[in-house]
Amino acid sequence: MVLAAVAALLAIGLFLLRGGLQPAAPLEKLARQSLDLPVALTNGKPTLVEFYADWCEACQAMAPAMERIESQHHEQLDVVLLNVDNPRWQPEVDRYDVNGIPQLELFDAEGSAVGRSLGARSQPELEALSSALIAATPLPVMAGVAPLSQLPSAPLGASGAMAGPRSHS
Fold it and tell me: Does domain 18-147 have CATH number 1.10.10.10?
């Protein structure tokens, strides 16, 4: 009986230490309501993906602004949060070369990567990025934001094969 009481007290203590019944933090809330990335990239809406971590202070500071962007543009834009500490997202962390957080990956309505943003963003900056994605216009010029481009096809050599790196034709 004593063992059950101690176990119950420990469980209650752990519950209270982890936040009790308080509403989830914005990062956690957004991550839970996010679409799966493959769904977001194929549903005909532009997508803003944030790679984050719970311990990241810049990510936490940016969370209320991300929450506002998601709620204001829910019908026009998908906001997806991927936690870099979750092994489930390791393939995406590798694919998008995440080496710092927060990192935003920006996709057009067809699911093609159009840009990347490194570092924390303010509400006006997130709004400008979101508006450009929704309007399918070029990304705004700001430090830490770069549009992505596709490499052109390699020129064909005289034999119809791709020219090699030592080719001078």
Answer: no
